[in-house]
């Protein structure tokens, strides 16, 4: 759409509709002023001038936050040399590059790969060519809803990255102090807790199978047994070295949430002591579980499929569900969410709560306790003990 020249009013600016390509409405009254309308619907005030013979456009603000009258006054002040309120509009693509240099480079390799994937596949296609001060809440919501239809969890993660980027841009003085982040306050998609947990009989069968295989020298079975006893992540156990195994804890040098200690219960301590006794290289910087030339995770997964079948466990049960089982059984044993969250190394207690499955017998026992508590308030125990003697007899006796 070609640039149009007219005497601008607030009503005309409000009625300007986005087209397939961006266009500008030039003001007849203030020749250097124009309203640029982008396909996203964002509208920005710009002044045009020439520097060293080349045309230069500078952004004054956005419509409707800045009306026509205020935009004309700002344009006059700008052309007169008062350029303090004016900020160069930074393209989102440039912000992405700066954000990675100043923030994302501190992420772990796996986290950095995930971050770059979201930026490359989701954020840049949606906002790459837009100046950051023109990204509206409507733009963000429309993108988030489209993405959320196919990947609710991915949309949540990408929205968090976008919000962090825009907040950083404001902190780095790329946006005015009173600017409102359009990615803040959007309701996240509900995440369905996936996976399941093992019942006590299933735990017993699995423990028996793993103990037999681990005793005959299968490192993958040892990994699975360690997962079951500690609640650690697979990567944490696979990278574990003997120097990290202390008498009462595992001192993880690195994990998803950074270095942390994992306290060990009696069973876990007994397992590592027995495993160390059977290994000639169980010292120093040697890894606890060694697989030779094999890819450790692939080997563990192969053994897991065999163990799962031998222990007669559900075919949908995943290795990571061993961690979920640790959570559930800890809570059913009376441990608080806060305590279990610290054991697992979760940053947020809500993450732990998502995997706090409870067995039916635990729920029934809880319901029984609550019912008796209420009954004690409504009907005292002394009265309930007297009731059988006052009830009508059955059989051949007189009433």
UniProtKB/TrEMBL annotation:
Nucleus as UniProt keyword? no
CDD domains of this UniProt entry? INT_Rci_Hp1_C
PROSITE patterns attached to this UniProt entry: TYR_RECOMBINASE
Signal peptide position in this chain? Answer: none
Source organism's superkingdom? Bacteria
- What is this protein's name? Site-specific integrase
Q: Which InterPro entries match?
A: DNA_brk_join_enz (IPR011010), Integrase-like_cat_sf (IPR013762), Integrase_catalytic (IPR002104), Integrase_DNA-bd_sf (IPR038488), Integrase_DNA_bind_dom (IPR025166), Integrase_recombinase_N (IPR010998), Tyrosine_recombinase_XerCD (IPR050090)
Which UniProt keywords are listed?
A: DNA integration, DNA recombination, DNA-binding
Native species: Novosphingobium mangrovi (ex Huang et al. 2023)
Name the protein family.
Belongs to the 'phage' integrase family.
| Region feature (Disordered) | 379-399
Domain Tyr recombinase positions: 193-368
């Amino acid at each position: 759409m070609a640039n149009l020249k007219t005497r601008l009013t607030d009503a005309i600016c409000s009625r300007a509709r986005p087209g397939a390509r961006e266009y500008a409405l030039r003001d007849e009254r203030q020749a250097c002023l124009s309203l640029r309308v982008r396909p996203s619907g964002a509208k920005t005030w710009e002044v045009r001038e020439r520097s060293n013979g080349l045309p230069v456009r500078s952004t004054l603000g956005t419509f409707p936050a800045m009306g026509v009258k205020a935009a004309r006054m700002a344009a006059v002040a700008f052309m007169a040399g008062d350029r303090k309120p004016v900020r160069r509009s930074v393209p989102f693509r440039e912000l992405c590059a700066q954000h990675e240099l100043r923030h994302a480079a501190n992420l772990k390799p796996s986290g950095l790969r995930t971050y770059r994937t979201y930026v490359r596949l989701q954020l840049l296609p949606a906002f790459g060519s837009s100046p950051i001060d023109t990204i509206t809440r409507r733009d963000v919501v429309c993108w988030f809803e489209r993405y959320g239809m196919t990947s609710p969890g991915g949309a949540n993660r990408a929205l968090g990255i976008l919000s962090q980027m825009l907040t950083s841009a404001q902190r780095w003085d790329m946006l005015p102090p009173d600017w409102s982040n359009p990615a803040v306050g959007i309701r996240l998609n509900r995440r369905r807790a996936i996976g399941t947990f093992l019942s006590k009989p299933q735990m017993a069968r699995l423990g028996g199978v793993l103990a037999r295989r681990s005793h005959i020298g299968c490192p993958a079975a040892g990994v699975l047994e360690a997962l079951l006893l500690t609640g650690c992540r697979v990567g944490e156990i696979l990278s574990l070295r003997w120097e990290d195994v202390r008498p009462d804890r595992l001192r993880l040098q690195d994990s998803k949430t950074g270095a942390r200690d994992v306290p060990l219960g009696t069973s876990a301590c007994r397992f590592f002591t027995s495993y160390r006794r059977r290994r000639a290289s169980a010292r120093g910087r040697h890894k606890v579980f060694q697989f030779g030339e094999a890819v450790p995770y692939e080997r563990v997964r192969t053994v897991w499929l065999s163990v799962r079948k031998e222990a007669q466990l559900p075919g949908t049960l995943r290795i990571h569900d061993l961690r979920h089982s640790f959570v559930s059984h800890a809570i059913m044993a009376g441990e608080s969410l806060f305590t279990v969250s610290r054991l697992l190394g979760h940053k947020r207690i809500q993450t732990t709560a998502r995997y706090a499955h409870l067995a039916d017998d635990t729920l029934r026992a809880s319901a029984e306790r609550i019912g008796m508590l209420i009954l004690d308030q409504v009907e005292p125990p002394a009265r309930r003990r007297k009731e059988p003697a006052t009830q009508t007899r059955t059989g051949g006796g007189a009433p």
